[in-house]
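Handoff note, outgoing to incoming analyst
You'll be picking up this chain. Sequence as last confirmed:
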Amino acid sequence: DDAARRAGELVMDLVRQDARPSRFVTRDSLENAIASVAATGGSTNGVLHLLAIAHEFGIALGIDEFGAIADRTPVIADLQPGGRYTAANLFDAGGMSLIVRELLRRPGLLHGDAPNVDGRTLAEIGADAVETSGQSVVRSIEAPLKATGGLAILHGSLAPEGCVVKLAGHERREHRGPARVFDSETECYAAVRDRKIKPGDVVVIRYEGPVGGPGMQEMLSVTGALVGEGLGDSVALITDGRFSGGTHGLMIGHVAPEAALGGPIAAVHEGDTIVIDVDRKALDLDVPADEVERRLRAWRPPEPHYTGGVLAKSAALVGSASNGAVTTGPRMVANL
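Most recent structure output, in case you need it:
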């Protein structure tokens, strides 16, 4: 009750100040947000959301900048699913201000002068941190869980516009294996349930992107089933859909262009070799380029799941996941 009252008082103070979101949502604050996702092993959904927010504010932000920030930002929060603790444990340890404090101790990781809605700068928030004695949720900047952040952006013949891989919670940075191709999450879940997926496979789930889904639903049931079958550490999964923050293992989402728009993921055949190399920032289909081109020339888009209503409108207007899957942009204008 006290927290709710304080939040209401803060809202009214902001109204009286005529404080608009544009005062706080800036290029610097978005970079701080990306660093916080990287430092906490946060959800790959942060990439979609922050790209979309930047678009709405007219702030130039590209998908590769997430990778650049993650590469210089260590993981310092031992949080689930990759770590041991929950958000409630982080609160008890001292909260996000502890993470801010530690990141600010290394120059170049955060913009400390970014303003916050409560009137303080980010540096002041870090300085005000109160750490619970003996807490083990947040590591010091000198002794991080990982030297680099919890996600990476890959490109390659399977993802010319990019894709996102979550790195927190596992040490796998390379995988090469045969594609097991499914045109929906439901179809793939049935295969996992029936134990048709084997160690070493690369599970491909396509037509689940912003257009194909439509709506880019989370692949939570499949990723959970793979872990349940003991395959979480021996298979890889790629999809033009997205993942829950609870995803574990070598999982690559937001593959763009998506299958429904004729992206290279639509040309993958059962048994094709797929190569994932995080250190090279690469996701490639080990098939000759002329063969991929031949397959794509023969490709035809599937019938849409919806021909009317809001989901059909969304599929007609939405853009690439690599730009935040927003519904304003060149593709929308073309469809109008």
